[in-house]
Amino acid sequence: MEDKQPAHVKPFEEVKKGIETKLKLQKAKDVALKEADKAYTSLYKQPDLMAYAKEHGLKVHQTALFSKNEKSAKGVLPDPSFMKNAFSLQKGRVSSIVELKNGFCIMQLVEHRPSQVLPLEKVKEKVEKAVKTEKAGEMAKKKAEALISALKKKDATLQALAEKEGLKVKKTKLLTMMSPYDPDLGGALAGAINEIALLTKENPVVSRPLTLRGSDYAVCVLSEVVPPTPEEVKKAEKDMRKRIGEVKGQKALQSWLNTLKKKTKIEIHQKVLDSFS
After folding, report:
1. CA 196/CA 207 separation, integer angstroms
2. CA triplet 230, 222, 203: central angle to 5 degrees?
3. Residue 70 lies in a domain
4. Which neighbouring-strand residues pair with 94?
5. pTM assigned to the model
6. Which of 150, 184, 252, 259 is most buried (most C-beta within 10 Å)?
7. What are the CA-CA distances from residue 49 to residues 40, 88, 171, 234 (Å)?
């Protein structure tokens, strides 16, 4: 903790924009739900999604055939609610209103093919590729573990071991805990940042290989530590104070909104709602 300040209520002008945004989003969500409810009521009686969409000028998104474990097929939304409801539908029937992260949807099952064991000829190439990738990954991991062991024993330098194994050595840019990203290593550094942050000149080698894309692995060795300048420390402190202030502001706003909900009597003006439909 760098500073402690007494709690206070922010002026309305400071939080006005945030409140307006929240209210607009809530209003849009309410209108969307109202439209979804109207659609579901109609489709329950006459389950023809395409006809309803055409009549009301709506767009229908049609997926390709996909399995429970296949989330990258055309039109498939990577949302647990979408997947759960998709596989509970009966052919021709429509789903209830499904709430997604960014809205609502109603689904209709057009075609269902039961799971089956495909002939070897159709999956042979895919299986062979998967097995080769898995074996390559196992070999790469073992080689990476052997390199780490040799480096910790100080049998040779990273450069010498890499040349012996025909591997490449890449030096990253200077990294920080707040920005541990490298284009070639992807998110691997972020996943091991707590371990990497504890590396020292006396103990510069990671204890385990870092998983990269596909079946690749990386061995990381600390080569340089550059302490921040007083100016950088001051800027980081300023940024941190700003982030903490934003978090506190959001919490205060949410607390205020919750208090308003408890103290406010809510009236629904149907005519106003209908004006948005």
Report:
1. 9
2. 105
3. yes
4. 108
5. 0.44
6. 150
7. 10, 17, 56, 59
